[in-house]
């Protein structure tokens, strides 16, 4: 019941958010000076109204829902870990500051790449709209190849930026996984030492490891 309620509430909120964003953005754009529309392509504006607002919707709702759920799960897990061994808990959390710094730096760079990707996609959309809208002119002057070349150039630019983002995300998660593996190994070895020296029982160590993995 709680899962269904959470899904319904966040889905409803996401639809309201994207509708409000589109209304506000359209109102803002429609009040721009005429000169703004002279230098800005219609397709780019349409892309901003549709694709960009959808991206913001996902970030503000779906991603937020997952983040809150993961935060709640992690908080409960850390509480159980502290109840088993505060020493091992502090050792496990030692990698958190390092990962936090890495996430902040990666986030800034990915944000910049995302803006470039959205801009290239918007231009590609604008080129397609202009070509289809003036298809009679394009055909009359045999400019199909020119239109295809322009569109392909922007699509390829979007692809390269997307591949760069994918590479960075892959390297990041690989690094996080490696750090997590080393952290678990350190916990196991230190936990074994505490068990041998009598500061911790085997049952407590087993419980701690299970809590840390969940």
From TrEMBL:
This is ABC transmembrane type-1 domain-containing protein. It is found in: Membrane. One of its GO terms (molecular function) is ATP binding. One of its GO terms (biological process) is oligopeptide export from mitochondrion. PANTHER family: ATP-BINDING CASSETTE SUB-FAMILY B MEMBER 10, MITOCHONDRIAL (PTHR43394:SF1), ATP-DEPENDENT PERMEASE MDL1, MITOCHONDRIAL (PTHR43394). GO terms for cellular component: mitochondrial inner membrane. Keywords: ATP-binding, Membrane, Nucleotide-binding, Transmembrane, Transmembrane helix, Transport. Residues 1-214 form the ABC transmembrane type-1 domain. Pfam families: ABC_membrane. The chain crosses the membrane at residues 88-107, 168-190, 196-213. It comes from the Eukaryota. It is a multi-pass membrane protein.
């Amino acid at each position: 019941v709680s899962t269904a309620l959470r899904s319904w509430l966040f889905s409803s909120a996401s639809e309201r958010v994207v509708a409000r964003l589109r209304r506000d953005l359209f109102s803002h754009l429609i009040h721009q000076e005429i000169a703004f529309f002279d230098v800005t392509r219609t397709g780019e504006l349409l892309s901003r109204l549709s694709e960009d607002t959808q991206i913001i919707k996902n970030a503000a709702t779906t991603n937020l829902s997952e983040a809150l759920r993961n935060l709640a799960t992690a908080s409960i897990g850390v509480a159980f870990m502290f109840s088993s061994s505060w020493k091992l808990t502090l050792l496990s959390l030692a990698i958190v500051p390092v990962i936090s710094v890495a996430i902040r730096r990666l986030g800034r760079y990915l944000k910049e790449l995302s803006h470039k990707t959205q801009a290239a996609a918007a231009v590609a959309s604008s080129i397609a709209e202009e070509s289809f809208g003036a298809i009679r002119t394009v055909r009359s002057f045999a400019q199909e190849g020119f239109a295809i070349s322009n569109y392909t150039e922007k699509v390829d630019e979007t692809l390269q930026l997307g591949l760069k983002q994918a590479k960075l995300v892959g390297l990041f998660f690989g690094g996080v996984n490696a750090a997590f593996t080393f952290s678990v190994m350190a916990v196991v070895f230190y936990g074994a030492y505490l068990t041998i020296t009598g500061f911790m029982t085997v049952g407590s160590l087993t419980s701690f490891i299970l809590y840390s993995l969940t």
